[in-house]
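Quick one: co-fold with flavin-adenine dinucleotide.
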Amino acid sequence: MPRSVSSPSTIEIPRLLAAFDGQVITPDDPGYDQARALFYGGMDRRPAAIVRPVDAAGVARVVTLAREHGLELAVRGGGHSVAGHSTTDGGILLDLSQLTALDIDLEGRTAWAQAGLTAGAYTTAVGAHGLATGFGDTGSVGIGGITLGGGIGFLVRKHGMTIDNLLAAELVTADGQILEVDAERHPDLFWAIRGGGGNFGVATRFRYRLNELPSIVGGMLLLPATAEIIAEYMAAAEAAPEELSSIANVMVAPPMPFVPEDQHGKLVIMALLAYAGDAEAGERALAPFRALADPIADMLQPMPYAGMFPPEEEGEFHPTAVAHTMFMDAVDRRMADTIMEQLQASDAPVRVVQLRALGGAMTRVPVEATAFAHRHSRIMANVAAFYDGPADRERRQAWVDGAAAALQQSDDGAYVNFLGDEGPERVRRAYPGSTWDRLVEVKRRYDPGNLFRLNQNVPPA
Ligand SMILES: Cc1cc2nc3c(=O)[nH]c(=O)nc-3n(C[C@H](O)[C@H](O)[C@H](O)COP(=O)(O)OP(=O)(O)OC[C@H]3O[C@@H](n4cnc5c(N)ncnc54)[C@H](O)[C@@H]3O)c2cc1C
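Sure, here it is.
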């Protein structure tokens, strides 16, 4: 195990190393740059040490050391934080990537999953038994971050959000205790970690419900983007049976092999659809989408659910992006016109308005049951653009802000898992009204010193 110490700002690091039996990586170590990289580029922070515990006791030791010695603590699961919260300058990066055990109870239809697993690894493993828990749209996202923030993906209308399938968690709190939390034990914490993010402790494992899902019909459908087709698509997505969840990316067609060359650079709807049910009913549910226009590419097919998460290139792709998360009431023809106008007004090579029709199972969980407060929002939207360097960032951000303002309707909420580093006012949009007050109360009880503050922070005071 490499054990060099180089950061003068953190004189406690040698003690940390002595007390710790997992892997420790410090700035002099050859693997340091790779270990500190996040999914997104443009976040060049240098932790004094990256520590990789192998069990909950190791996590508890790191938490205690950070608290006792006033070291800034970042917690990392899959490293996909949109805000760059899962790293630190000069503090400790607690990297959970070694915690990958998965214990499936086939009879009880539940699984205990350690928090270092990715959504893709979990989905593939439980999928081998014809079972599934819904996470998001990307396999490399960590189950830790997505679960604690809510989790909205391809099963949201049929089986609800990830947190609606969370039965229990093991949590290391700021005082170094290892707690099991569920509806009976520490119900206040169990409420708060279902949507409240990493504010309340380090989750070391999660117990999920497993839903039977032997196969789906789904994949990608690429349609030409016109205002009419966008509006009709969203009407179809909202009218579809609950088995069907979808994500419509209105974007510039990428130069990918399945996109005909004459479409490159044109606006398209890159739709990802998943029908969680049998093939025949799936084909029927997908027919209205196929009928919207002559598809540019139609890759919808029966497949295992894990087929929605194709393998990703590891470590090479670190996009720099600006984005705005929001909810919308409706995308009618006029709103679809606005979406087209906004996308046409930018020349960012990658720019997108992402639309997800919600509804179904997620709306049947009472709003006050979890810390996710947007159960009745109709559509989740995300406006995003890639940028290349600081000057480009500024103008892409201006476009994102302008487009988001143009799309804003009555629902002024935000989804915490898609928030960037946007300041306290935007965090409040994720936790409106009494949700915020309750979160503050739980925070005061379990993390009065705000040790867990590198997140969409709910300060104790
Ligand atoms: C390409 C991409 C696609 C996405 N798609 C979706 C989607 O379809 N649906 C959706 O709901 N979200 C989606 N997200 C958002 C995603 O849910 C969040 O970015 C989430 O925080 C990522 O989790 P992570 O463990 O990979 O991130 P990390 O960067 O490792 O963690 C993010 C934050 O979560 C907290 N955290 C993570 N693990 C733990 C833990 N075990 N204990 C305590 N705190 C922890 C920490 O505060 C940390 O700063 C997507 C993000 C990306 C980049």
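If it helps, The radius of gyration is 22 Å.
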